[in-house]
Amino acid sequence: MIVARVGGRISAGLLALVAAMPLRAEPERDRIATERAAANAHFAEQERECAQRFVVTSCVEAARREQRMTLTRLHRAELALDETARREAATRRRQALNDKARVQDARASEPAGSARRTAPRAAPTANPPATAQGHAGGASSPSGDERRALEDHNKATFDAKARAAQQHREAVERRNAQRAAAGKVAAPLPVPSGASAP
Length: 198
Description:
mainly alpha
């Protein structure tokens, strides 16, 4: 009994020491972890002390209540740290995006001499659609005959794909009709044995 009281005083002293520790260079999370470990140790000692008393249940409940309050406070402190870390990360991301946008704006507003250096890289992406349309020489727009030829080609391609899709649908319908005629119909699922009869 005397040992338990002395142990309780030591753990209470440890708790007071941990709670009174000034915030120094040690990260806040380490402080919270240390305080949580001290709270758990204090609860274990209080529980041992309660076991030696006549009325054990109320003593343990009081110790549990004290531990719960301490752990709740520490959990809230951790949540506040997490929220601060999230805000700082979001600020860093926004700053990085703003910096990137500024760099892109600066590149876009470079003098014409700088733009000429980047033009050859942009030209290959602009030319393939022109060659895909079938007009050579890099003309900016096709003539009336070229446009009509291109429209006729696109219409013929569309019609061919539509015919192929229709033939496929008809083939699937014929195959399904043949299966149905051959009696290959799926059997119904069996009734579970535990089902009650109406």
